[in-house]
Each structure stands twice: as C-alpha cells, then as structure tokens.
Amino acid sequence: MLQFPAWKVLLVLAVLIWGVVMALPNAVNMSNAPGFLPKQSVNLGLDLRGGVYLEMEIPATEVISSRLEVFARDVRSAFARTSDRDPIFFQPELRGRTMLIKLSRPDENGNFPVEEALRRLDRINSPIEGGLGGGKTFEISRAGPDSILVGVSSASEAAMLQDALNKTMTIVRRRVDPDGVAEISLTPSGNNRIVLEAPGEPDPQRLKDLLSRDGRMTFNLVETSPAEIASAQAGIVKPGFRLLEGPETGPLLVREIPEVVGSDIATASQGNDEANRPQINFRLNANGARKFYETTRNNSGKLFAIVLDDVIMSAPRINEPIPGGNVRITGTFTMEEAQDLAAIIAAGEMPAKVQFLDQRVVSSTLGEDSIESGFRAAIVGLSLVAVFMILAYGLQGMFAVISLVANVILIFASLSLLGATLTLPGIAGIILTIGMAVDANVLVFERVREEQNNGRSLWTAVQAGYERALITILDANITTLFAAVILYSMGSGPVKGFAVTLALGIVTSVFTAFVFTRMLTVFWMKTFKPKRLAV
Amino acid sequence: MLIKYWPKETKIPFMRYRYVGVVLSLIMMVGSIYLVMTRGLNLGVDFAGGSVIELRQTDTVTVANVRSQIPGGLTVNSATDANGAELVVIRFGEVDASLLGPEFAALTEEEKADRASAASNTFVVNTIKQEFNLQDEDILRNDSVGPKVSGELFREGLIALGVATLMMFLYIAFRYSWAYAVGGIAALIHDAIGTIGLFSLLQIQFDLTTIAALLTIIGYSVNDSVVVFDRIREIRRKYKQMPATEVIDIATNQTLSRTFLTGGTTIIAVLAIVIFGGPVLQGMSVAMIWGIVIGTYSSIYFAAAIVLMLGVDINRKPVEDTPGFEAMP
Asked: In angstroms, rounded to a whole number, what is the distance separating the alpha carbons of residues A452 and A436?
C-alpha cells in the first residue's frame, strides 16, 4: 500500500500532466501554442452558450398512410392494365394505418374473386426495404366475403419509420443549413423523433416555419376560362382539375396531374431579378428539363402554375418553348423568405409533416450569466471545502486539497477527451463532486486517526488506514456511480451533463483521493520522518 | 489540527432511541405524503407542459405591464438572476383558442390538443415582441414543452428513480445481506419521500433537475448507509459475542466523525451553489442540502435500526451461535 516504485510515481505524474495539458485550453487561449498541444476547450451546452433546442416527431400514422396511398396507386395501375372482361373492380379506402379494398363486382356465381385479387396484390407487394428474412411491406388478408384488408406489420412499420426518419433528417439538415456551414446538431431520438440543437441566436419561429412546410413542389398547367373558375368556386370542379389559391394570382383551376414535380429539381437558390428584388432560381435535372421544354412547347399561351404545398406561388404565361431547365420564381419576397423558400424547394418533400413537441430557447446573454455564476459558485465551493479540510486535518488536509484541485483538472480533461458537453447542472455536478470527493480522504484520515489512537506506529497506522478504507470507499462510490449512470441513460440535455460530470468526478476522485493523496503522504513521511500524523 | 478536538471515542447510545427515530421518520414520511396529496407539487414545464418565458425587466417591460398588455391569462412573476438583475418570468399552459387565429380553429380536435401548447407559445412570443418592440435576443429564455413530452419525462423520471433503487438494493444484498439491503433501501425511500415533501412544503419547482437532485440524494444516502454497514460488518466479525445493539452503536460512533465531516464538506459545496449558482440551480441544491441532512440521519436511525430488527449477521447462522443477538422486537 505504501510502496511507490518509480514506475508508479511516473504513471501517476503522467496522468496528472496529461490532465493539465488537456484541461489547459479551458483556462488559457491556446491559439498561439505549439501544434502538438490540444486547443479544443470543453463543449458548452446550449444552456451555457445560448441557442435553440427543438424536438420534433414524425407522426407514424401519417408515414404509414402516405405509404398506403402510394400502394393504392400501384394497385390501381396494376389492375387497370388487365382487360375489360376482368371481373375485379375495387375501391381502396384509407383508414389511418390500414386500407380496406372492397371488390365491387361478383362473378357469375355471385362470389367475389377474393382469392384472385389476393394473388395479384401479393405480386405487387414488395419486400421490406433493407429487411432480412423476406418479410413483405404490407400484410394483406381477407376481411370479408368481398373485402381485403391491407395493414403493416411491426417490422415493416419500423422499416418505414426508419426510412422516414433518415429522409427527414437529410431534409431538415438541408433546409436549416443549406450551405453546410452552421454548427447545427441533429440527433435521432427513439424511432421517430429528431432533436435539433442550434447554438447562437437563431429565430426559433423561423426555424419552425422552415421545418413545418411539406415542401411539395409541382408545376401544373392552368385552366383559365372564367366560367370554369366560377363554377369551381361554386363547388363544381371539373374532373381532373383542382381549385388552388395563390396570394398573387388569386384562385386558379389547375390540372390535377402536374407536368413537372419536385424530384425533377436539381438545385434551388436565392437570387435577384433585374430590379434587384429577391427571387428564387432553380435548375431542373435532365429529365425535368425535357418535360418542362415539352410542356412549354405544346402549351404556348397558357398559364403555367408553380405550386408549393398546394399554394400557387406564381403563374407566368408561356410565351415560347423554354429549353435548358433554368427557371425562376419572382414575387414580392423578402430576402429571408426567398432564402428559406429556396432551401425548402432544394431540400425536397418531407415524408410526413413534423410535429414540434418540445422547444427550449436560451439567449446567449443568459448563457454567459450562467457560466459566470456557475464559475463563481465552483470557486467559492472549492475554497470553502479547502479551508474546512485544512482546518480539520492540517497538512494532511492540504494534501487532500491538492488532490481535489487535481481532481477538478482531471474532470475537465476527461470531458475534453470524451467530447462531452458541459451544462449548468454539469457545473453543479462538479461542485457536488468537490464536496463528496474528500469523503475518500476523510475515510482514510479517520481510519489512520483511530489506528494511531489504538497505539499503532505511524507507518502501520497509515498502511492500515488505507487498506481498511479501500473497501468502504469502493462500495460507497459504486453506489453513487449507479445513480449517475441511470441519470445519464434517462436524461436529456442539461441533466445528462450533470450525470456526466458526476460520474467522471466519482472515477477521478477515487484516483486522486486514494492514489495521489497517498503518494503525497508517503513522500512527506519519507522526507520529514514525522512521529505521527497530525490528524 | 482541529479534528484532534473531536472526542477520541464517542459513546452515544444511538440504538436506545431507535424507536423515537423510527417514529419521527414515519411522521415525516406520512407528513410528506399528506403534503404532496393536499398541497401538491409545483410542477415545472418539464412535467406539467406549457411554456416559460423570461425577459429582462426594463422601464416598459414590467410584471404589471406584461400582465395588463398581453392577453391569455398568463402567470407573470418577477425573479432575480444570479447577478442581481431583475427578470420578468411568464408561465402559461394554453391560451384561449380564440386568440390563436383561424388556422388553429380549422384543425381537428386531436390536432388542437397536440398543437395548442406550441401555438400558444408562438402567440405569446409574437405578442410580446410586438407590444414591447423586442428582438429575439431580448427573450432570455423560452421553453415550451408539449403534453406528450411532459408526460413521458415524468414517467421516465419515475422509472429512473425505480431502477436506481432496485440496483442499489441488489448491490447491497450482494455485498452484505438482504437485511442490509432492506435497511439501506428503506433509508433511501425515506430520504426521497422526505425531500419530495420539502418540495411540496416550500412549493419549490419540481422539474428534471429535481430528478437529478433526487438521484444524487439516493446515491448519497446509500453511500452513507454503506459506510456504517461496512463498520457493522467489521465489528461483528471481530466481536462475535457482542449484542447487536452494541455493535451498531459502536459502528455508528466510530464512523460519526466521518459522517459529520463528509456531510459538512458536501453541504458547504452545495451551499455555494445555492448562494452563487443562480436561480436555475437553486431548487435543486436546496433539495440536496435537505437530502444530505436527512440522509445522514436516516443512515443511522432508519438503515441501522432496520438492520437491527432484521438481523446484523451477513452469513445466516443459527440463532444459538449468536447468544448476544437480541430477539426481534
């Protein structure tokens, strides 16, 4: 227990020096230091640096029903190809997470050809994406003498949600950070949630507006006859057409099937028109450009509506065929609106509209205040504990305090090493650790005191003190470590930060209090050869 | 140094007063539960849902002005931050649906329930910005938690406390015996209930950081109990014939200086957070101080007393082997 061979001393010193080097950037500006030294200071949480935290959810029902809608279209086209004499006619009916297919015409015997329909549906039922074991995307079963139920198995639902989550993450990233320069973190949480953390002072409302758009972009030909618009407004919409509104165009009747869609767009950006007003430029991909050219060639004189999420953004008249696929939208946008719209168009369509569950915004001034008050509390706490320990145990208390400082340095070094985030409750965790870390020292010192009182000599008393206290120290710290680990696994954001510093503090404090203090004590005993420990 | 003035050997007959201790503890626990049931807890946005907005107080932005100029039945209070600056703190759940505009009115009932909280937040923030001519950076804090998340957070918090308790129980049972595990866990539950009672009594805000504080208290409580348990075991091994009451008294007395010193340094450190750490950490740290105080007490009067009732022996031996062992009271 009291033997410190050279390698042990070197090891302890190496750990401490490593700690100082890693923790240094938090105290001093290292930008001019030599290259081999770390320059990264500890990551600060949003509560300390200010920023926006948004938690959003992709509604599972919406994801599933939109997939069922696509399936219904596949079913329609698969059945449409069969001949006129085919007895199977059907109507799909969406019911949230399931779809009911009703066969509408019985055969000559009055039976509905459910078996035949099931066989055909099975052919177009694709395997689960990325799934192993050959499960199919939809569960198709007979629901009655004339009906078939299409549902989704839990494995398939998980695959759909995973796919929607991946797509949404990509789209969210492209929308909030089109240039890829902002320091924005996106983390999936659970199977259908995303946490967005944006430091600094972004406008949370603008972020939410940007993310709550579907981003469904279409180009539709317009029916301009006033009589048809009037009758549509009266409620009689011509088949194959839809009545849409636009802030600048007013109500227009557009073709239901678009000529060009969002996936035909290659890039979009904010630009300026001749009068230097903000506009949105975009370029179509080869396929889109060809469709655009053909539509403009065949429909000269008509209006061509540019529609985003069922709102007409503009509807210019086609004067001549437009090749090349470079298109622009002009209108009365502010610069910010044009940028956001360009980002939405470029990012593509969301698999489902996200819901915002949870929002936390901290201004950076409040964050700075928190750093300041947390720092002050830590300094005061450390000083008070130091005074207390020195008053109680004298020189040995001094050793414990040196270990305590080493402990705080090691906590910061480990935070840097793990890339963990320091939050305000995290600072509280460090302060709490300062108070609790001396427990190991106190246990040892009290043990040594007892042994000395029982008449043991200095070395045997110190030896026995450390030996006997070890088990207690381990037992006591492991239980607190349990609490910290559980806190980490459940916690979010700031609370997680508390758990991290608490857990790190427990591990480092056992090292500093039990190993480093012991080393200091042994050196002191060897050098000054005291008769007893003044504890 | 000063520690030498601490008596070398204290001989406080703790276990003689164990029934007084247990009764006091039961009164405190029943009182706490009664308080929570009648007074309730001051749930923060984490658990209750809704919004909290903090603004810096200025000549125009005052509690009275916000109350009179912003509709929606908001709860407006003043607060002071760690640096002494005055804040205006606005709390609300959902404002009246008629304020939320036609777009909200068009939603289905289910969608309304999901979005009312977020829509209310948007409405209040926009109204404040307009009325007082404020920018984004003037809004110091704006937290809004939907009903879905707040319910989950509360459930997760309870689960965390439950899992922590179970793990501590298993650890102590593994290291000592079932009797010790029951004693340690009883003390832990005692401390947790007592702390929640304080939250109800003082109406301190109960939120996620409170769960963090409770878990820390649980850890500290068990830590404290384990130190006493360790000593009980050690003395028991040394003096096999000693009556259990005496074993526990000696163990408690021998660890008493440590109990006070560690409790003292921890309280000092946490006190620094209470005074200098600012309003965010205040509730959490007040709870921790109280938890440390009752945790220290409970490791003696609850944990040890229960171990005494259930049996101090780690290896179950027939009773005749331990003649000094007291019959179960």
From this structure: 25
